[in-house]
Amino acid sequence: MREKRIITAALTGSIHTPSMSPYLPITPEQLIEEAVRAHEAGAAVAHVHVRNPATGLPSADQELFRTVAAGIKKRCDMVVCCTTGGRLGEPVENRVRVVASLSPELATLNAGSLNFALFHIAENYTEWKHDWERNYLQASEDFIFPNTFLTMRQFLERFALQDTKPEFEIYDFGMINNLSFLIEKGHVKKPVYLQFVMGILGGIPATIENFVILLEAARKAIGDFQFSVCAAGRTQFNLCTTSLMMGGHARVGLEDNLFLEKGRLAKSNAEQVAKLVRIAREIGIEPATPSEARRILGLKGLDKVNF
After folding, report:
1. Which residues contact 236 (CB under 8 A, 6 or more apart)?
2. 119: Cβ–Cβ under 8 A, 6 or more apart, which residues?
3. d(Cα 45, Cα 190) in Å, to the nearest integer?
4. Could you give the dihedral angle defined by the CA atoms of residues 237, 241, 242 and 245, in that order, rounded to the nearest 10 degrees?
5. How much is the pTM?
6. 82: DSSP letter
7. Domains, the chain
8. pLDDT tens digit string along 135-181?
């Protein structure tokens, strides 16, 4: 029996803008199609952000979330993991509404605040499809992504009411301590699921050395847990492969990286999933099915969501 690992497809995110790739999914229909194709390629989880269909601006619109989640559910049995990060600058109270509204099996919960910086990316582009894109990126030079202890506790209360499992987004070492504290105080129940998010300016650089240190720090502070890795940009496949080899899961997708290889844009999330599946099988690992992912993570089941 080959070992099973969960592959997540992060479909669109809130970092990249439409001018950066013609393949970035924008509309609900595109997001649903991307999720289904990623599922067919081997992804068990779809990590979902939504965007204004007309402009591509990241959004927290609940009807857009519902349309995408329901559309995915209608066509396949993927786990839908909703973001509570939203777009840069989204009011905190808007970000968690998707948990109360859709009662998903899985949703992200950012384990601390950080300088979430994208302004340097704007330097690589001179032409923009939409007026909002350049300003959206440049404004992040003076932006803090707020996830205070109060916010985290309040989010966790919403998650508990819906029996939605948190996927804790760990951007740096301090966030491991934050999560350990929340566990100690009884706000978080073990076992936990960690997503090590690497390569964001303002967070930990995406290197294999840093990943190993993060993982060991988490084991000392938290104990046993499930974990996954995602990495921004060109280090995506190196870090994801390392995670698989160290017993973890992995996230790919156009949220994190627009390329399939150097100089070649990925035409879909499914292309990235398929590449990682090929790598995994070469080292004796098989992608988990959605039902296997549910057992691994202890999720409540697709019949208990509200979409």
Report:
1. 230, 252, 256, 257, 272
2. 137, 138, 139, 140, 141
3. 21
4. 180
5. 0.96
6. E
7. 3-304 (3.20.20.70)
8. 999 999 999 999 999 999 999 999 999 999 999 999 999 999 999 99
